[in-house]
Design a protein that fits this description.
The structure holds two protein chains of two kinds. By secondary structure, chain A is an all-alpha fold. Chain A has a two-stranded antiparallel ribbon. In chain A, helix 3 packs antiparallel against helix 5. Chain A is globular and about 45 Å long. By secondary structure, chain B is mainly α. Chain B is built from seven helices and no strands. Classes of the chains: A mainly alpha, B mainly alpha.
Chain lengths: ~170, ~200
C-alpha cells in the first residue's frame, strides 16, 4: 500500500545525539506531508478535505522548521501513499498523528539544546491537536488516555517503518 | 551534568526574556510556598515550583468538570466527553501531586473556584479557555525543566491538554489549531492572571 519507506529511515539511525533525534522527527514530518498531499489530491469533501489541506500546510511548516534547526534527512524520494477513500485516509492519519505525538514526547527529553526542546515542544502540541481532531472526525475519543505515550527513538522508527509498509 | 543543565536553563531564560515564569514578579507565584527554596536565584528553573504551578491549573480544571458533569446541562456524547475530561484531569492532579511530593514539595489544597456555570455554552466557554490556556502554560515551561522524569511527565500531560482543547474547540466550531502550525507558549505571570478570574 505504501512504498519507499526506507527513504526516511536510512539516515536517522546513522546520526547520533540531537542530530539523530531531529532526523527521526523530520522523517515523521515527511511521512505526514506525503500523507496529506496524497489526500489533498483526492476528491474529498467538507471537513475531511479542509482538514487534509490545513494539516498538510502545518506539517510542511514543521518540516521546514526542523530543517532550519539543522535536521538532515535522507536524500531519497519521499514515501508514496496510495489510499483512495476517506476512511482509509483518516485511519492512516490517526495512526501517524498518534505516532508523531509519541515520537516527539520520547525525543524531547533526549535533546540537549534548550532551543531545540522549545521548538519541538511547540510542534508536538500541534501534532496532538491534529491527532485529537482526526479522532473526533472518526468518532473516537480525542484523548484516549490521561497521559500520552512517549516512544524511544528506536521504537518510533520501527513504528514508522511498519506504518510505511516495512 | 546537573550544573550544565542548570546553566543551559538559565541561558534559555535569558533568551526568553525571563518570560518563562518563576521570576518572582507576582505574589501568587508558588516558588517559595511549594518548596521552601527561597535561596534559589530569581528566575532560576525550579521544577517543584513549576509542578506546583501546573497542579493549580489542573485542580481548577478538575473542579470545573466535576461541576459540569453534575450540572445536568450535558447529555449523551457531550456528557461522556465531560466525564472523560473530568477523569483525566483528576489523574493529572494525582500524578502531579505525587511528582511534587517526590521533589520535596507539598501539594497545596485545591483552590476555591468561582466558575459561573449557568448553562451548557457557559461551561464550554470556560472549559475551552482553560484548556487552551493550560496547553500554553505547559508549553511555556517545558524548556525550563531540569529533571528528565518531570519533563517526561509534563510532556505526557501537555499533549493531552492540547487534545482536550481541540475537542472543545471543535465542539464550539473553532479551529483545531488556533495558532497555526506551532503552539504558542504563555508565561506563568500571564497564566496566573487569567486563572485569577476563576478563583474565589
Amino acid at each position: 500500500m505504501i512504498t519507499r519507506r526506507s527513504l526516511l529511515l536510512a539516515q536517522t539511525s546513522a546520526q547520533s545525539g540531537d542530530a539523530g533525534v531531529l532526523a527521526l522527527l523530520l522523517a515523521v514530518e515527511h511521512a505526514q506531508v506525503a500523507l496529506y498531499e496524497h489526500a489533498a489530491g483526492l476528491p474529498f469533501h467538507g471537513r475531511v478535505a479542509e482538514l487534509a489541506g490545513r494539516f498538510g500546510d502545518e506539517e510542511r511548516k514543521h518540516a521546514d522548521r526542523l530543517g532550519k534547526l539543522g535536521a538532515r534527512g535522507s536524500e531519497s524520494a519521499p514515501p508514496v501513499f496510495d489510499f483512495d477513500s476517506e476512511s482509509k485516509f483518516l485511519r492512516l492519519a490517526q495512526r501517524l498523528e498518534g505516532l508523531a505525538v509519541g515520537a516527539y514526547n520520547g525525543a524531547i527529553p533526549l535533546l540537549a539544546d534548550p532551543g531545540l526542546k522549545r521548538a519541538t515542544a511547540a510542534i508536538v502540541q500541534v501534532e496532538a491537536r491534529h491527532s485529537a481532531a482526526v479522532r473526533v472526525l472518526r468518532r473516537s475519543e480525542p484523548a484516549p488516555r490521561a497521559f500520552d505515550r512517549a516512544f524511544e527513538p528506536a521504537r518510533a522508527e520501527r513504528a514508522l517503518a511498519t506504518l510505511l509498509g516495512g | 551534568m546537573q550544573r550544565r543543565a542548570f546553566l543551559a536553563g538559565l541561558g534559555a531564560l535569558a533568551v526568553a526574556g525571563c518570560g518563562g515564569g518563576g521570576g518572582g514578579q507576582t505574589a501568587r507565584e508558588p516558588t517559595e510556598t511549594a518548596t521552601g527554596a527561597g535561596a534559589r536565584l530569581p528566575g532560576a528553573p525550579d521544577d517543584a515550583a513549576t509542578v506546583a504551578y501546573v497542579l493549580k491549573l489542573e485542580q481548577v480544571e478538575a473542579d470545573l468538570y466535576r461541576r459540569a458533569a453534575d450540572s445536568g446541562f450535558f447529555k449523551g456524547r457531550e456528557l461522556a466527553l465531560i466525564q472523560a475530561l473530568r477523569d483525566e484531569e483528576d489523574e493529572h492532579v494525582d500524578m502531579l501531586a505525587g511528582a511534587l511530593h517526590r521533589l520535596g514539595g507539598k501539594a497545596p489544597a485545591a483552590p476555591e473556584t468561582r466558575l459561573a456555570l449557568e448553562d451548557r455554552d457557559g461551561v464550554l466557554r470556560v472549559a475551552v479557555r482553560l484548556e487552551n490556556l493550560g496547553a500554553a502554560a505547559y508549553l511555556g515551561q517545558l524548556d525550563r525543566i531540569r529533571d528528565r522524569d518531570v519533563l517526561a511527565t509534563l510532556l505526557s500531560i501537555h499533549t493531552v491538554e492540547a487534545r482536550h482543547a481541540t475537542a472543545l474547540n471543535l465542539l464550539l466550531g473553532k479551529s483545531p489549531t488556533p495558532n497555526g502550525a506551532f503552539g504558542r507558549p504563555e508565561d506563568m505571570a500571564t497564566v496566573l492572571r487569567v486563572l485569577d478570574v476563576y478563583l474565589a
